[in-house]
Amino acid sequence: MSTPNEQKKLIEEIGQVNEERLRLSPLAARIYALLALSSYDGLTFDEIKDSIQASKSSTSVNINVLIQLSYVEYHTVSGDRKRYFRMAKDYQQQALERYHQSLKNDVALIEKINAFNKVHHSEKFKIEKSLGGIMQNYYKEQQKLIKVTIDKITKFKTEEK
Predict the structure, then answer these.
(1) Mean predicted lDDT score pLDDT of the chain
(2) What is the dihedral sign for C-alpha 148, 150, 156, 159?
(3) pLDDT digits (tens, 9 = 90+) for 74-106
């Protein structure tokens, strides 16, 4: 069983990574980290606020940002007026799908750069064509790996039902 101190350190570590990777505010990143380390039942607003030691308004604003970005969702329990916040079920798959599309865009952009330089800067194209090809191949391999992972997640969800 983890101690509260261990959990706080891990929340800070995950928060720093997600702040940079997901381009979130420091507080939103910490809330996201807290929910990643919480049970799937979720946490109430007050539990989140108390755990991250932030004001009501800051906590509310950042939870709403996470909801708008589809990183977090909430549910209610019959007979209980509170909302319980948790990580969105489909967030990981959605993030992979966005990254897959981003890589696809990068491949297309490299192709356009190579085509332009081939016509307008033939010397530069000769020198840099192989570098562009290396990056294109890297992105295409990443796309394949991501596609396999998305397919595995989809299969897992299908079997789970």
Answers:
(1) 89
(2) negative
(3) 999 999 999 999 999 888 888 889 889 999 999
SS (H, E, C) the chain: CCCHHHHHHHHHHHHHHHHHHCCCCHHHHHHHHHHHCCCCCCEEHHHHHHHHCCCHHHHHHHHHHHHHCCCEEEEEECCEEEEEEEECCCHHHHHHHHHHHHHHHHHHHHHHHHHHHHHHCHHHHHHHHHHHHHHHHHHHHHHHHHHHHHHHHHHHHHHHC
pTM recorded for the entire structure: 0.72
Q: Report CA-CA distances (Å) from 43 to 84, 135, 145.
A: 5, 43, 34
Q: Which of 89, 79, 7, 2 is nearest to 42 (CA)?
A: 89
Residue 37 buriedness (CB in 10 A; 0-12 / 13-18 / 19+): middle
Question: Is domain 4-87 in CATH 2.10.77.10, yes or no?
Answer: no
Q: Domain-by-domain residue ranges, the chain?
A: 4-87, 91-160
| Cα 65 to Cα 55: distance, rounded to the nearest angstrom | 16
pLDDT single digits (tens) 51-81: 999 999 999 999 999 999 989 999 999 999 9
